[in-house]
Design brief:
The structure holds 2 protein chains of 2 kinds.
Chain A (H helix, E strand, L loop, with lengths): L1 E10 L4 H11 L6 E6 L3 E7 L2 H13 L3 E8 L9 H11 L29 H10 L7 H5 L2
Antiparallel strand pairs in A: 1-3, 1-4, 2-3
Chain B lengths: L12 H4 L3 H22 L1 H10 L20 H6 L13 E8 L5 E7 H17 L7 E4 L7 H13 L2 E4 L5 H10 L4 E4 L1 H13 L4 H4 L4 E4 L6 H11 L2 E8 L4 E7 L6 E3 L4 E6 L6 E2 L5 E7 L10 E7 L1 E2 L11 E2 L4 E2 L4 E3 L2 E3 L1 H10 L7 E8 L2 E9 L9 H19 L4 E5 L14 E3 L5
Parallel strand pairs in B: 3-4, 3-5, 5-6, 6-7, 19-22, 20-21
Antiparallel strand pairs in B: 1-2, 7-8, 8-9, 9-15, 10-11, 10-12, 12-13, 13-16, 14-15, 17-18, 19-20
Helix pairs in contact in B: 2-3, 5-6, 8-10, 11-12
The chains are: A alpha+beta, B alpha/beta.
């Protein structure tokens, strides 16, 4: 019941994440899930790709000088309602387990066109202006509420 | 050289102003006795002399020094802890030490005689900077295995000055004591002197009005004329350079007088030579080369032709202060890759030994040394390997902390460890470049 995940070590350097996604993207690797854990000096990128693409993606990363590993993680469904996540976490807590990290899939399950990423950026106001200038589709509070 | 208008104080004029001929005679006698002692008591050195075909009887004076085999820092590691002692352990009254080239520290054993000699050398050192029994000497070198603190303490004690054995750290308290007790002479590393000066200025203290400082003896790390000017301005003092090493005794092997024109070597206790580091051949005064010391009065752990790997020149021109003791110029470099960071000797090989012993760590590393806010910093860049790489931040942070702790325990200084991408540290053919020193010390 475990699923495969690739973890990649990245130095906290300008362009590092873009370079890595470019490498994967140009080879046709489709990211199904992504998380970025960062510290002042380095980051760990965790990605999930289709099971057939996992080994080739790992090889590609290593061949290009990345430190990368495959690990196994659990994917649990969380009911889409208030307290849905909380109930799952309660189970984990009662079992005396702790969460080391958690992130979500990029694709909404209900046939939506794209994934919805939640971003926190260093300058939110400026980012908002840039996104609007480039006609990036942004969700407003109303859009979120209407989901 | 022109005589300056300064008043020069000399602790032991009979020795410090001795004629060169008389000095060579005394050096010769003391050398002969030391070689005999070493040959009889230190099997390692006897074997080395035997291998070179030299007997103690072959050494008649300073001119025969060149026939003796060298000693190296690695000898202190290989014969650690007691096998270089030339006196019974019961005669040893002190151990001092410093970091070695790899994991183990090096130690030196001192007999009562050796402590007395060392104290005398430091008394001369402090006196040359102007100290008398009326002075208040603040020692901010660490008091411990490191020779800096005890050396300065003993010298000031010998003069009869009032000693404040502060040891290192706690700058605010240092400044408070300096002000309250009227410190007149400061002993610390030049970088700490700069930091103290900057802090004093920031606190709005005017050293010329609020403090009684007049001079400082600064050493344990290389520094420049620019740093001297800055320290003298910041603290309103005369800043004198001092030189020493644990293997020979500690601080006070050589010292500057107020002429500030090279460091007088205590030649009645040590003989200095300059050699060609590649051939081991002696070089004449004035030529730059590797500094080599022979102790001629020490009994606990005498060192014969000890290679310092420091590069400098010697001169026996008479100094404006009246001393006849030869002087060594500033250290202009090293023949090996030793670094001095916050007064601590650091060899890249020590860092390498830590990395090699840590599981899964690649032996590729880069040391980046800098001086930020007058304090030396050491960054160790280590490549991330798959063995080290865990999937969580805490796992990687633990690896990083482990390396920092190991470096601290082996080298004795705090470092910053940065994990970098694999193969991002340049590989070079031949001797790898392991150090980037941004301090411009030479």
């Amino acid at each position: 019941m475990f699923i495969k995940q690739i973890s990649v070590f990245l130095e906290n350097k300008r362009g590092a994440l873009r370079e890595m996604t470019e490498l994967l993207g140009k080879s046709g690797v489709d990211l199904l899930a992504l998380s970025v854990a960062d510290t002042q000096n380095f980051g760990i990128i965790r990605i999930i790709v289709s099971s057939v693409a996992t080994e080739p993606a790992l090889k590609l990363l290593r061949d290009n000088g990345y430190t990368a590993k495959v690990n196994h993680v659990i994917c649990a469904e969380v009911p889409d309602r208030p307290l849905g996540l909380c109930e799952l976490l309660s189970l984990i807590e009662q079992a005396n387990l702790s969460v080391e990290y958690m992130y979500s899939f990029l694709r909404a399950s209900r046939g939506s066109e794209g994934a919805h990423m939640i971003l926190r950026l260093s300058d939110g106001e400026k980012a908002m202006q840039v996104f609007q200038m480039h006609e990036v589709n942004l969700f407003s509070q109303e859009d979120v509420d209407a989901l | 050289m022109e005589m300056s208008q300064r008043e020069h104080r000399i602790y032991n004029p009979a020795m410090e102003c001795i004629s060169r001929d008389e000095l060579h005679k005394i050096q010769g006698e003391r050398l002969v006795a030391t070689v005999k002692r070493e040959y009889e008591n230190v099997p390692m050195y006897r074997a080395r002399m035997d291998a070179a075909g030299i007997k103690p009887e072959d050494i008649h004076g300073v001119e025969d020094l060149k026939y003796l085999p060298f000693m190296e820092k690695t000898d202190l590691r290989d014969y650690y802890p007691f096998d270089l002692f030339a006196s019974p352990k019961s005669e040893i009254v002190r151990i001092q030490g410093s970091s070695g080239t790899t994991g183990k520290p090096i130690v030196s054993g001192y007999t009562r005689n050796d402590i007395e000699i060392w104290s005398e050398m430091m008394a001369r050192t402090l006196t040359a900077a102007g100290a008398t029994k009326d002075d208040v000497v603040q020692v901010t070198y660490g008091l411990g295995l490191f020779t800096g603190g005890f050396g300065a303490y003993q010298g000031a004690d010998r003069i009869g000055a009032m000693v404040i054995p502060m040891s290192s750290g706690n700058t605010n308290r240092q400044i408070m004591m300096m002000k309250d007790l009227g410190t007149t002479l400061l002993c610390c590393t030049p970088s700490y002197a700069t930091y103290l000066g900057e802090t004093i200025r920031e606190m709005g203290i005017d050293p010329n009005k609020d403090l009684k400082l007049k001079a400082g003896c600064f050493g344990a790390e290389p520094w420049t004329e620019e740093m001297r000017k800055r320290i003298e301005e910041l603290l309103g003092i005369d800043a004198c350079d001092i030189y020493g090493l644990t293997e020979i005794s500690g601080p006070g092997v050589a010292f500057e007088c107020l002429e500030k024109h090279g460091m007088h070597i205590n030649e009645d206790h040590v003989i200095a030579e300059i050699i060609n580091p590649a051939t081991g051949e002696q070089l004449p005064y004035g030529k730059p080369g590797e500094l080599v010391f022979t102790t001629i009065t020490k009994t606990g752990m005498p060192m014969l032709r000890y290679r310092t790997h420091d590069i400098c020149t010697l001169t026996d021109e008479k100094c404006g202060c009246g001393r006849t003791l030869a002087r060594m110029g500033r250290i202009t470099g090293r023949t090996d890759d030793m670094l001095v960071i916050r007064g601590v000797n650091v060899f890249p090989s020590q860092i390498e030994s830590v990395l090699v012993r840590a599981d899964g760590v690649a032996p590729h590393y880069m040391l980046i040394v800098d001086r930020i806010n007058s304090s030396d910093t050491l960054e160790v860049q280590v490549e991330m390997t798959e063995d080290m790489f865990g999937d969580t931040i805490s796992h990687i942070e633990n690896v990083r902390k482990y390396i920092i702790d190991q470096i601290k325990s082996v080298v004795g200084i705090a470092s910053k460890v940065t994990l970098v991408a694999p193969k991002s540290i340049p590989r070079s053919e031949g001797k790898a470049k392991r150090v980037i020193d941004n301090r411009n010390l030479h």
